[in-house]
Amino acid sequence: MRCIPWLLLLIAPCALADDGVLVEHVSTSATQQVVLAVVKTAMINRRWTIDDMTASSVTASISRHPLKATLTITYAYGRVLYNGDATRMVQIGPIAGTVQKPASVNIPANWLAYLRRDISLALAAIPDPKPSS
Description:
It is built from 3 helices and 6 strands. α2 (about 30-45) packs across α3 (about 110-125). Strands 1, 2, 3, 4, 5 and 6 form a 6-stranded antiparallel beta sheet that branches. The longest helix is centred in the C-terminal third of the chain and has 16 residues, at about 110-125. It has one domain. The protein has helices at about 5-10, 30-45, 110-125, and strands spanning about 20-25, 50-55, 55-65, 65-75, 80-90, 100-105. It is an alpha+beta fold. β4 (about 65-75) and β5 form a beta hairpin.
């Protein structure tokens, strides 16, 4: 997935999904609490189940047969970062005696893209601090 130049004008700069960054730049006026609240809301709206929330991260999971994914999103150094994994159930053996076994796969890129878009748009609505006179 590549950043589209005209899209950069609409939202905060994006990064490739495989580098662990969801949002490259967050307004300095957004506190960690606000950023994590935005992340939590975006995940809930995308039907992720919030498993854990700490002062610095949100961990959630989703299950869409045959995929199950877990994702931890943190806010650090003005960037929204993620780390996660997914498993897919694969069938092993002949059709009559099939056994399902989990196989490790990447989280689907479109799932990350939807979260990136939702989080970026919400964070872009937070105004930058006004310079002091």
